[in-house]
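dumping this here before i forget
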Amino acid sequence: MTPQEKSKIEDLKRNLYDTKGHKLNKAREGILHPVNYDVKEDWQEEEKKEDKKIKFRRPPVSAFKKFFIVALVFFVGAIIYAGYNFLANDKTIVSNEKINIQVVGNSFTKAGEELFLEIAVVNNNNAKLEFTYLSIEYPKGALNDWSNIERLPRDNIGVINPGERIVRNVKVRLFGEEKSVTNVRVGLEYHPEGSNAVFSKEIYYPVTISDAPLSLSVESPNTAVSGQPIILKFTTTLNTSLPTENPILKINYPNNFIIDSTSPESDVGDSVWSLSSLTKEEPLVVEIKGKIVGAEGDNQVFHAYAGTSKETTPFVIDVNYSSIMQSILIGKPFLNTKILINGVDQEENSVSGGSEVEVSIDWQNNSFDPISDTEIIVSLSGNVIDVDSVSTGNGFYDSTKNQIFFNKSTDSRLAQIKPSQSGSSKFSFRTNSLIGLIDDAFKEPTVNIKVSVSGRQSSSGYDYKMLNDFLEKVVRLKTDFQIASSAFYYNGQVPPKANDETSYIVSWTLSNSANSLSLAKAVSVLPFYVSWVGPVEGSSENITYNQASREVIWNIGAVKPYTGIKENREVSFVIKIRPSLTQVGEIPTLMEKITLTGVDSFTKTEIESSFGRITTELRNDPNYKQISGKVIR
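structure:
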């Protein structure tokens, strides 16, 4: 390359890369003519500006956005205004949090004793509290039941100034079971300064009962056999002060519990006892004897409550101070034993005086193990046992103790009773007759039969455990209630003559032995040829005649014991007979059989007896004893 050509190329590069954009100095060569173009140097800048305008063009603002912006501005302004007023008026605002209620006192107290409490109310607000009232409430009884509360009189404090501290001293009397917690509610009602609105604040102050005023305890078996007697002992102890109202002990029994006796006797319905005489030195012990009747596995629950009652409802606990519950499970006896009186298994039995009583003690081994050395002891007691008539089969009667023994020496079966093995031990005796007795020693004639059953059963192979069961039956003697009837000549033909009238006086006389009776009545029927005349003049007894049924009815009512011995009870009335010719040579009936009924007040059984018909044969009339009662023509 020549130096000239090289020089041109260098110039061309220099002009090409020149950032200032200088025009190239070109040499005219050839026949080409230069053409001038007007090219703007800032064309690229203009293009960028146009692109920006197109890219960032904003859409028009909607009416909803405009409304939202206005609302937002208003809300912010309201907040600013409220904040300003709050800061400006902070001195007149009342806050519940700035009211402090303080309780100072003992956290433990004995139930029923006075507890002193200091209650302070502090107003930490910058405004007054107006029309303020202080209230104190707490449960009235021992169950922490807020539906039954003790309310102290409301304390009208009035105005509590800012920063002021108001102090009140109060006394409360709390009740509850030992170690229970009772709350005292302290409340404050107030009006903020310049306001009619009522606000309140309350707190609870817990107090632990260190000792209950009344405590209850119970002694009883945990298991029992259905129908066998049990004893429960409920003890009420006074620990602090006795409530001033009507303090009572109330016991609720299960439905299947039969009460035999209570000691001491209850004040209301075998279930309520007064505690007004209770002292710290002498607790009240209530002993209850009875029987639980139910199926094996049943759980019978007894509840006892100590508290106060209202005068209008002395048998209902109004405020409860202490309670206790005792559960007794009905179990299966190891040796199932039943006492049958004259073949019947029932708790109460009644027989007539002078009758034979047969007793059978049926037993069966209910366990899976044999029972050895079984002994059955029968204790007889009562005022109407004929001791000379006691007869035992496989047993021995000890007349000095009035007991009958059945054991392996009298009955080999009792040496060992195998599982499911059964048998019976029998004896009998006769009761005394009650007819003609006037001694009060035979009042409520009763025979008590108590049976204890014991035995041994192996518990491990070497050790034995003793097994015991108890049963009891009562035999009550029914009163001997009788009526006698007699007829005496009054007027007319003697002996009776056909087609003529003869009148007779009939007398009914009662006799009763040891028990009183109620609803007693005597009834007899007149034959169709006998007419009713009426009661003898001066009779005060209630005797009537039913024309339709031809019944003579004596409504006797109540009958005292020993009637016919200590006092007489009789009625007399007149009847007449007109015999027919067809009755000539016969002895006509004046009255049919007399039926006597009544309810024995002691045995609660119906008594029934009868007396045979009476005729015209006047066997009891001393004046006409030898005259025949046959009808003549």
